[in-house]
Specification:
The protein is an alpha+beta fold. Among the domains are: 32-124, Dna Ligase, domain 1 (2-Layer Sandwich), CATH 3.30.1490.20; 125-228, D-amino Acid Aminotransferase, Chain A, domain 1; 243-411, no CATH class; 688-809, Phosphohistidine domain (Glucose Oxidase, domain 1), CATH 3.50.30.10. The protein is 46% helix and 14% strand. It contains 28 helices and 21 strands. The chain has a 7-stranded mixed beta sheet with strand order 15-19-18-17-16-20-21, sandwiched between helices. It has a 6-stranded antiparallel beta sheet with strand order 9-8-5-6-7-14, sandwiched between helices. Strands 1-4-2-3 form a 4-stranded antiparallel beta sheet, with helices on both faces. β8 (202-209) and β9 form a beta hairpin. The relative contact order is 0.11.
């Protein structure tokens, strides 16, 4: 039998067995010179082996590595379990002996004293410029992607600072010639290894040298998923991505709205990844679409004077992942009064800038768009002179944005009054409805429909309007600080003076625990909140009392904001032709921010009650909450009136089964945060995000990963790591945390405002790369002043960190 025909079961016996088999057969890559022997041989022939090692490796430094029986087997990889010693001088018998003894000692410490365990000695690779780990399938799901975690250069400082892009995910069916040049040879080398080992589920450590040679350091089977469905899923994933690519091409080539193309972002504008997550259930997605993303987001902006056009839904979905159609968003954020010729030119500038600066997709309103006047506007507009805008166009744009903003400030008292009236109407109708007793599931669903429709009219449309005004207010406030008219301390003091639902919630919670208000009264105000506003599977505060346990009493005292710079601000406003006094200016900022939060608080009450009615109706029909999460809201609302009870149960059951199967399949598809081109679905890259830091404080503490909202443990004086958050997560602030880090979120997001309000150091929207690193950390420094997150301690059981440790130990990275 030829070497390459060896059965994999006889290859995956130990690390050394695998490497020697490959060394004899690979052509595209290389494996360093090998010498191995058993621990039994070492005990019996120590002097002979030391002499043999010295002769076998006459020139280079060597690495003494573990190679225990079963260490890289098909059942268990045991990555990082045992010692490996680098930088050993083969001429020094003491160095070699000590290194071998340390490896054997690591076997004994793990209760593995098998005399057939091997010691693997290899030449140490030199001139490595890129090193890393490539999984030939997604390790969690078995999805058909090459997952490459890599480091460039000899330093890993960027890892601990979260400042490098070191992940790429490549669809398995791509030809090497269609890949980025950096990875063409690596993928060819890996495919050769797959062919020789007759396995496409491998975990391979590699290095790339200065002369572009691929060195294989280690190969293990991936043992974390079942292989039974892989082939079926592979074909289906390739087919689905093909359909998605066609849909992307169609939307990008559409001429229905202005703009030469479009981009899809999970964090631009209404931030779907932050609000409903990266992989929302069909009901979550459809509720968010129904209440906001189809119409309300646009209607609120048109009322303020932004562009009128005929948009489709702001949100689209590929797989399970929600995206914002950026061209639609950018059209809606250009004031209507701007000349049409300038609008078109401006829109294409926005799209080009985002395309060239993908890392800004969660900061488009501050870093790319010109949506209103602020004190930095004229400085920012000078950028346009470099991309073909005339002085007249820039001046006209500046004047238009100034007129637009001053009109909003002038109209604000009336808009504020309208918002208050909307809240009152929505609250009155909801309370009146709550006093009725639904007879059956039809009544419950009918009431849910009333609540959701009213939520749109009196909730999300006014909220869309007020959210935009609050953005303008925030831009004005920030520009005052950046121009040094206000100190950072004064801005923080101003934010602390806001009396929002968060401060009311925390202070009422203290009152409840002091027996000043009843539990019934407290839950009557706040019981509708749930950590996952759109998620029917998550309990409300009213139903999940652990949210109210382990409270650390930290009453928020709304400070009286006293601005000693009134005269300066009055002068600034006058010099910028803003017809408003300092007192009214700060009232505009304060009231818009507070009203935005109050509208959000109230419309989520309608939504929460509607979700509970749907859950109750579903229970009557024999469905659990988890099953209902796979229905879409339009399916629910369109079917309950037309069908009999038995027909409805049958119809919903079929829909649930179909949608669940589709959801579970789509969960195997890996998608990027930003889609610039249809090919981004095949080669998934991640741009390192710059988190939005809140406050200028620095704190070091243990990191608590809140992966499950039901984990309501004690967070006091610890830093919380969240994927995404909405108003329902306000309970975390009752635990007196030391800081907060989120994967998703913008500078004006819910959590950014919350943290600013209470002066909590935070990094909002750290992005995929930093977040993934932090999920493997146990202690971090959150340094908001210097805008960095530094990992102080790692989870020693984490697989990737163990592999990185091995690479460091082997000398491939420092």
């Amino acid at each position: 039998m030829k070497n390459h025909e060896t059965k994999t079961s006889t290859v995956f016996v130990s690390k050394s067995t695998v490497l020697k088999f490959l060394q004899a057969n690979i052509k595209i890559s290389k494996i360093e010179k090998i010498l191995d022997f058993t621990t039994k041989s070492w005990m019996e022939n120590e002097d002979e082996l030391l002499s043999l090692i010295s002769k076998h490796f006459p020139n280079n430094k060597i690495i003494v590595r573990s190679s225990a029986i079963g260490e890289d087997s098909e059942e268990n990889s045991q990555a990082g379990t045992y010692e490996s010693i680098l930088n050993v001088d083969p001429k020094s018998k003491n160095q070699v002996k000590n290194a071998i003894d340390k490896v054997i000692k690591s076997y004994e410490l793990k209760n593995n004293s098998n005399p057939d365990n091997q010691i693997l000695v290899q030449s140490q690779t030199r001139n490595v410029i890129t090193s890393g780990v490539i999984f030939t399938r997604a390790p969690e799901t078995g999805s058909p992607y090459y997952i490459i975690n890599f480091e460039d250069g000899q330093s890993t400082t960027g890892v601990t600072h979260g400042s490098i892009n070191n992940v790429i995910k490549i669809l398995r069916n791509l030809k090497p010639s269609s890949l980025p040049k950096k990875w063409q040879l690596l993928i060819s080398a890996v495919r050769e290894v797959e062919s020789l080992l007759k396995s496409d589920s491998l975990d391979i450590e590699f290095g790339i040298t200065k002369n572009n040679k691929i060195v294989i350091f280690q190969v293990r089977p991936i043992t974390t998923f079942s292989r039974s469905m892989l082939q079926h899923y592979d074909k289906q994933i390739y087919s689905t991505l093909g359909s998605n690519k066609s849909q992307i091409r169609k939307l990008q080539n559409s001429k229905k709205i202005p703009g030469k193309t479009t981009i899809f972002s999970d964090m631009a504008d209404w931030n779907p990844a932050e609000i409903i997550g990266n992989n929302p259930y069909p009901l979550d997605y459809s509720l968010y679409d129904f209440l906001i993303m189809k119409h309300a987001w646009y209607q609120g902006r048109v009322i303020l004077g932004y562009s009128k056009f005929n948009p489709h839904s702001l949100m689209v979905k590929y797989g399970n992942k929600p995206y914002v159609d950026v061209r639609v968003s950018f059209n809606s954020l250009i004031p209507n009064m701007i000349q049409k010729s300038i609008k078109t030119k401006l829109l294409n500038f926005y799209l080009d800038k985002l395309g060239n600066n993908a890392h800004l997709h969660d900061k488009v309103e501050f870093e790319i768009l010109f949506t209103c006047f602020d004190l930095l506007l004229d400085e920012r507009l000078q950028e346009l002179s470099k991309v073909g805008f005339s002085k007249y166009e820039i001046k006209e744009l500046s004047h238009s944005l100034h007129r637009f903003t001053t009109k909003i400030i002038k109209d604000f008292p009336k808009l504020l009054e309208n918002s208050k009236e909307s809240i009152e109407q929505m609250t009155n109708k909801r309370e009146k409805l709550s006093k009725t007793t639904p007879k059956d599931y039809r009544d419950k669903l009918a009431n849910a429909e009333v609540l959701l429709n009213d939520c749109k009219v009196n909730g999300t449309i006014p909220f869309s309007l007020m959210a935009r005004i609050a953005f303008i207010a925030t831009a004005l406030l920030n520009s005052c600080a950046k121009k040094k008219y206000l100190s950072e301390e004064l801005v923080q003091n101003f934010m602390n003076s806001l009396d929002t639902p968060l401060s009311k919630f925390q202070n009422d919670l203290v009152r409840y625990y002091n027996n000043e208000i009843s539990k019934e009264d407290f839950l009557g105000k706040y019981g509708h909140l749930r950590p996952g506003t759109y998620d029917i599977t998550i309990s409300r505060y009213a139903d999940e009392n652990p949210f109210l346990n382990n409270i650390k009493f930290k009453k928020i005292t709304s400070q009286n904001f006293e601005n000693e710079n009134y005269n300066i601000i009055n002068t600034v406003l006058r010099n910028n032709n803003l017809d408003v006094k300092s007192d009214d200016f700060f009232a505009f900022i304060k009231n818009s921010l507070v009203m935005r939060e109050e509208l959000k608080f109230e419309f989520t009450h309608n939504l929460s009650d509607a979700i509970e009615l749907i859950a109750d109706a579903g229970k009557e029909l024999g469905f659990f909450r988890e099953e209902l999460s796979y229905l879409e809201i339009n399916t629910i609302l369109k079917s309950y009136k037309k069908l009999s009870k038995s027909q409805l149960k049958e119809y919903w059951a079929k829909k649930i089964k179909k949608n669940k199967n589709e959801f579970e399949f789509n969960s195997h598809i890996i998608l990027p945060p930003l889609i610039l081109d249809k090919n981004d679905l095949e080669i998934v890259t991640y741009n390192t995000a710059k988190p939005n830091f809140v406050t200028t404080k620095s704190v070091s503490s243990n990191l608590i990963k809140l992966a499950d909202v039901r984990n309501v443990s004690n967070f006091e004086n610890q830093i919380i790591l969240l994927e995404h958050a909405d108003p329902g997560y306000d309970w975390i602030f009752t635990r007196n945390p030391a800081g907060l880090i989120t994967k998703y979120g913008g500078v004006a997001s819910h959590m950014a405002i919350r943290c600013s309000e209470i002066g909590l150091p935070a990094a909002i929207g750290c992005g995929e790369i930093i977040y993934e690193k932090l999920t493997n950390a146990t202690k971090v420094m959150l340094d908001c002043k210097n805008q960095q997150i530094i990992v102080l301690e790692h989870d020693k059981t984490d697989k990737f960190m163990e592999e990185k440790k091995i690479l460091k130990t082997l000398g491939y990275i420092k």
